[in-house]
Each structure stands twice: as C-alpha cells, then as structure tokens.
Amino acid sequence: MFHRIIVRTCLPLATLFVTVPFLGCDSKKEVPVVVVESKGPTLSQAALTRLEEADLLDGKADHVVGKCYVCSLGMDGSDKHSVEVGGYTAHLCSKFCQKEFEKSSEQIVLSTEIPKGTTQE
Questions:
Q1: Do 92 and 103 meet the contact criterion of CB atoms below 8 Å apart?
Q2: How far apart are CA 79 and CA 1, in angstroms?
C-alpha cells in the first residue's frame, strides 16, 4: 500500500522534473511580441503639441489635463469623466463634455485657446 502511494505521487513529480528542462527556455525559440496600442484616438502632431501646452496649466508635466477641454479649459475636470487621448488623460467636467470630446477630440484640442501666462516655461 505504501509502495503504491509513493509510486502515485513520486512518479508524476519525477516525470515533471525530467521533462520541464527540455520544454522550458530555448534560446532558439522566437518570443512572441505583444504590441499594446494606446487608448483613444490618434492625434496629429499639432494636436499633441497643444495637449502638451494644456498639460502644463497646472504646473506639472504629468500627461494629465485637469481642465475641461470642451469648456475651453475654463472648468475643472474630473477623473470621473476622463478620456485617454494621444498619451494624455483629459479630465472633463461632465458626461456631456466627455462624449463630445470622444467624438471630436482632434478638432476640440486644435480649436481651444490655451490661456496665456498660466503655463510653466
């Protein structure tokens, strides 16, 4: 009986230890590359430059725009209504503004006047 218990538990473990090195790392195998795409729409370089300017409105280059773009950067945005765009997170003030920004973020970003004298140089 004891012999059967040992055979039932040890034999599978021994098989595992013998086969794993042969199935494990092989320097000749190609490793699959996983490409992670950014969330949100792709923006032009001009729009990305404008996002960078708006990002500095709070004095930090943290890729977060805290003011609502749809309201011409005049209202504080909320992380509850945020959109990922061009590597930035845009906080918007309401669900309505979030939907508008999602529909036409490029146009909104390019048409919004960045308030003067508030960005950090």
A1: no
A2: 64
Which is nearest to 57 in space by CA: 1, 112, 2? 112
Contact 74, 113 (CB under 8 A): no
What is the total residue count of the chain? 121
User: What distances in angstroms separate CA 37 from CA 34, 42, 86, one per listed residue?
Assistant: 10, 10, 11
Contact 41, 85 (CB under 8 A): yes
pLDDT digits (tens, 9 = 90+) for 36-74: 345 566 789 999 999 999 999 889 999 999 999 999 999
12 — phi, psi (to 5°)? -65, -35
Q: What would the pLDDT profile of 73-116 be if each residue is shown by its tens digit?
A: 999 999 899 999 999 999 999 999 999 999 999 999 999 998 87
46, 91 in Cβ contact below 8 A? no
